[in-house]
Design brief:
Layout: E1 11-16, E2 19-24, E3 29-34, E4 41-42, E5 53-57, E6 63-66, E7 73-75, E8 78-79, E9 85-87, E10 93-96, E11 99-104, H1 109-112, H2 137-149, E12 156-159, H3 166-175, E13 184-188, H4 194-202, E14 203-204, E15 216-217, H5 219-222, E16 227-231, H6 238-250, E17 252-253, E18 262-263, E19 267-272, H7 276-281, H8 287-293, E20 296-299, H9 310-324, H10 344-352, H11 358-373, H12 385-388, H13 393-396, H14 410-428, H15 433-439, H16 444-453
Parallel strand pairs: 3-4, 12-19, 12-20, 13-16, 16-19
Antiparallel strand pairs: 1-2, 1-11, 3-5, 5-6, 6-9, 7-8, 7-10, 10-11, 14-15, 17-18
Length: about 450
Amino acid sequence: MQEPDRDQGLCLLVVGPGGWVAHTLPKAGVVVVGRGSDAQIRIDEASISRRHAEFVMGGKNPAVRDLESANGVRVGQHLLGPNTLTPVEVGQVVELGSVVVVLHQPSMLPALGAAPPANSEERPSLAPGGPPVIRDAAMKRLYAMVERIAPSGLSVLLLGETGVGKEVLAHAIHDASARNEGPCLALNCAALSENLVESELFGHVKGAFTGAVKDKTGLLEAAAGGTVFLDEIGELAPSIQAKLLRVLEERKVMRVGGLEPRAIDVRFVAATNRDLKAECDAGRFRTDLFFRINGISLDIPPLRDRKSEIAPLAQRFIARALAAGAGAAVGGAAQRASAPELAPGTTALLEAYAWPGNVRELRNAVERATVLAGGGVILPDHLPTEISLPASKAVADAPVSADAPAGQTLQEELEALERRRIREALDECGGNQTKAAEMLGMPRRTFIKRLDAYGIVRPRKK
């Protein structure tokens, strides 16, 4: 990937509740950051040592060294050892004690924009499914980071595998920001064709193309005063990347077929499961757009590294499945005083599984198990075979069957749930069958067979 423009040097953003402060860094040399009067960049905060860390400039990449500080230095989720020189990338989070700093290019700062004064009033989460489940230590640090950077107004790039919960984190950033009274609108860039993405993002005027029977406000205009979440931004076509870059630079949007640009006021949060640096090197993603959206980057760990959250997430998905209608298929279990419990052996299996599909795969497995359990305890035998087969001896000794639920046959219940999940996945992916199959953790060939078996019309390619 093309490196940032070293001719203009870099700056160090110190992120605080009211926004950020930029400190110019030399093109070469060592800059000490600390609370003491002899530090080149002075941060008067209790968690900062007198000589906390130093940034070394002038090499291939900038680097940071912990000067034996009392409260440590973290790069991403990694705690540095004393006097260890560690490379730092533009946009990467560096924690000095409880203070967040980020390296960036000065030319990007006008596009990033400082936020208006933060609103300290607590508000309920608008994230899908309610407040997030936070048990794992790394996730607690991540959400603490969100509380610190959200009021700053910086653009945020969320990184992580498919299904780890990037949209949930995007809503958390919005909720904790000064824009939380405005809308938080999302667009899955991978779910729509190039023409539809352009229309959805920028809007269009009447007559701009066949079917444009009236003016349409785009997502960037509709989110005025709020947050735009661009999921799977790595899937954008090059032509759309160029137009989005112009929007980020000028803070104006041109509707498809329009003649006059319109001013917008939004905060950008983007997400991808791709390595955007590698995409830039391959020429598939614009380097200048990468630096624009990467005001600050956050890595979300996969579910297999967050075992303490698996059981609480499973219980939430059980309750959600019952509330959504699965309870009617298990003899009225939705009206039970409490949701079905997970047998100890079941919990052990869930925590031992690698979850390549992460939280999304866990949800699908738990919804299926909820129907199979018929309102009773969820046993290992109710889990998909890829999860239940590698059982330990303790799990194998546990009961592996339960009475079939009254009313519908088991096959009818499973078919009803599967049909509903397939329709939901198609809707969420804009009719893209490949993406819908991936979302469900199902081979594409099997997915197509299910469409035919259930009489679901196969969407036409756009």
